[in-house]
Amino acid sequence: MCQLRHRVPRFYNYGLPSEGGIMGEIKLLKGNEAVAEAAVRCGCDGYFGYPITPQSEILETLMELKPWESTGMIVSQPDSEIASVNMLYGGASTGKRVMSTSSSPGISLMGEGFSYLAGAELPCVVVNVARGGPGLGTIQPGQSDYFQAVKGGGHGDYKLIVLAPNSVQEMYDFVGLGFDLAFKYRNPVLILSDGVIGQMMEKVELKPAIQRLTDEEVAEIYPWAATGKKSGQKRTVITSV
Description:
Elements: H1 2-7, E1 25-30, H2 31-41, E2 46-48, H3 56-65, H4 67-70, E3 74-76, H5 81-93, E4 98-102, H6 104-109, H7 111-119, E5 124-130, H8 146-151, E6 161-163, H9 168-185, E7 188-194, H10 195-199, E8 201-206, H11 215-221
């Protein structure tokens, strides 16, 4: 049963009408707020993010939602973007659904960590709410992060799976889709948005929440994960090329 749950998309019916034609819960949300709502509802185990405009509302909204009380999801503000991406490496190594968010210069700081995550074939989701210009200026739309996203950064020799939302609804939908793709292909997924969509407000259909996987389910579904060696179990080693 667990294997079947892994193969079938677990959160969304991507682009198809809601089951039975019934709409889910509707909220008026910023793009950033939609990301936070999606993280909680799609079974995310841990969020590690450092505040930076124009995406700081993601962390702020998660703090307001307090998912550690409702789902057990960890929400942490590390001391830098470099710390964030290395926390992703640790969490992803154990087969957990982990994510981070940042903006242009913060994503640049995370580049080395992306290299190690891709080299170790570890799944995670990162949202880049890009700034305009060279990453230092306004919240206007820009393409300064495009080549960094699609061609890889850090040490090179890897590719990210890149999703580019053009609406607040897609900011919400792509978090769940991102996790499904990340675990299917064991590769980091980057959601490449910008300050306009992150700050814009639209009505968003929120899908029913799914439960986080238990430690036992994670160990059964993802045999590659480092979940602690039990007696007679083959040793699991997570390492990057």
